[in-house]
Amino acid sequence: MEYSLSEEQISIKDTIQRFMEKEVTREGAREIDEKDEFPMKYLKKLIDLGFMGLNVAEEYGGQGGTVVDNMIMQEEMSKICPVLAWATGNIMLYGNSIIGTNGNEVQKKKYLPKLVKGELIFAYALTEPNAGSDAASIRTKAELKDGRYVINGSKIFITGAGVADYVITNARTAESKFGGITDFIVDAKSPGFSVRPIKDLGYRGSNTCEVYYDDVEVPLENVLGGPECVNQGWDMMMRLLNEERLLLSACALGIGQGAFEYALNYAKEREQFGRPIGRFQAIQHMLVEMATELEAARQLAYYAGWRTIQGLDAVKETSMSKYFCAEVAKKVALQAVQILGGYGYTMEYDAQRYLRDVLVLSIGGGATQIQKNIIGKQLGL
Ligand SMILES: Cc1cc2nc3c(=O)[nH]c(=O)nc-3n(C[C@H](O)[C@H](O)[C@H](O)COP(=O)(O)OP(=O)(O)OC[C@H]3O[C@@H](n4cnc5c(N)ncnc54)[C@H](O)[C@@H]3O)c2cc1C
Fold first, then answer.
1. Residues spanned by CATH 1.10.540.10 within the chain?
2. Could you give the CA distance from residue 49 to residue 20 in angstroms, rounded to a whole number?
3. 244 belongs to the catalytic site
4. Which fold has domain 7-120?
5. C-beta of residue 58 within 8 angstroms of C-beta of residue 116
6. Distance separating alpha carbons of residues 250 and 246, to the nearest angstrom
7. What is the pTM (predicted TM-score) of this model?
8. Quick check: CB of 136 below 6 Å from ligand 1?
9. Which fold has domain 123-231?
10. Which helix (H) or strand (E) holds 170?
11. DSSP character for 175?
12. Sign of CA dihedral 39, 45, 48, 52
């Protein structure tokens, strides 16, 4: 198996690494977290560097890259500023990937070139107060009236909904649990559309919102994939699940790696009992386990990515990757706090931010328990 990165992938990694260290910086990441502010200023710089077209086909103005290229980018960003990685998801996953995979030709031509230029931000609204892990039980309704759909209901935990121009909205158009869901491209300026920001523990600045639809009118042409795709929303979501799991795996790897390097540097500098604490075997073993488990998680994630871009079945591998990367990163971030001792417990050091940010990665995008259910099924259980 080929393990080395291509020249293009090395260039993505190096460019993003330099950008994060020189343009975003740890201080910049801290400021975004403290102000709980969508990282628009850094997103704009990434747009200017041309990164938003990474996963868009060349005919729509993009670079035609793969999900593995995007994973490399997500991992590098997450080492210093995880919320910036999520902000790019508001263009690259909820915009580029959803429209690129499920949109019809008219929709691709209309939205993709603008997404590549960073002129549009998208959000994706599936979860509802009563439909989280059991996502297909959504109740938000879309009814056909006078040649247009009218949406009523609410969504919760929608990333970036307050800054989005369009919100891809899953709504019920028929009784059938899985076969009665349709995706709509909802203009956030529509009358009856409103949001309420929610304060989160981590990924502060990601603009998590509750979303309300009060007689929101949507033209037929805004059915994702076109009017012939009514009731195909669930199948459309399934087509993107591997990609979402891989990107969240990469976010976890980046946070884990960031927390590990932070703790490693600290352990080399902090002295107690006349020597750096990294020379105590207890601390050394902790750091060794962190490095080893992160490496194992990384191998699994990129193997799952490789299977995906080869067109091989990868449901089991992407689910394993999603849960394993999130759980390893969670453990690593917790150990980083321990290694920093009292300083790790203060808001003045970044260890706490890695820990707060990482916790959602075993909840969102299919919780660890749900990934294990999926793997169990794949094992024939
Ligand atoms: C910060 C953040 C951002 C998010 N962004 C988005 C977004 O942009 N768009 C969107 O649509 N959604 C988004 N979500 C929603 C996210 O996908 C859901 O939170 C997630 O699917 C879990 O749903 P729930 O929170 O309702 O938990 P529940 O489904 O109520 O689960 C609670 C607990 O029960 C466990 N559980 C549930 N069912 C089972 C089962 N069958 N077997 C074993 N254990 C089970 C879960 O694993 C979990 O531990 C976001 C969430 C957060 C916190």
1. 7-120
2. 13
3. yes
4. Butyryl-Coa Dehydrogenase, subunit A; domain 1 (1.10.540)
5. no
6. 6
7. 0.97
8. no
9. Butyryl-CoA Dehydrogenase, subunit A; domain 2 (2.40.110)
10. strand 166-172
11. S
12. negative
Ligand 1 centroid distance, CA of 102 (Å): 24
Distance 47 CA to ligand 1 centre (A): 30
**127 CA: nearest ligand 1 atom:** 11
Q: Which of 86, 157, 198, 255 to mutate to test the pocket of ligand 1 (most atoms within 8 A of CB)?
A: 157
Range(s) within the chain of domains with CATH label 2.40.110.10: 123-231
Structure tokens at 297: 């998680």
What is the rounded CA–CA span in Å between residue 148 and residue 373? 38
Question: What is the distance between the alpha carbons of residues 65 and 86, in angstroms, rounded to a whole number?
Answer: 18
Is 235-378 in CATH node 3.30.230.10?
A: no
Q: Could you list the pLDDT tens digit for every one of the 381 residues in the chain?
A: 667 899 999 999 999 999 999 999 999 999 999 999 999 999 999 999 999 999 999 999 999 999 999 999 999 999 999 999 999 999 999 999 999 999 999 999 999 999 999 999 999 999 999 999 999 999 999 999 999 999 999 999 999 999 999 999 999 999 999 999 999 999 999 999 999 999 999 999 999 999 999 999 999 999 999 999 999 999 999 999 999 999 999 999 999 999 999 999 999 999 999 999 999 999 999 999 999 999 999 999 999 999 999 999 999 999 999 999 999 999 999 999 999 999 999 999 999 999 999 999 999 999 999 999 999 999 999
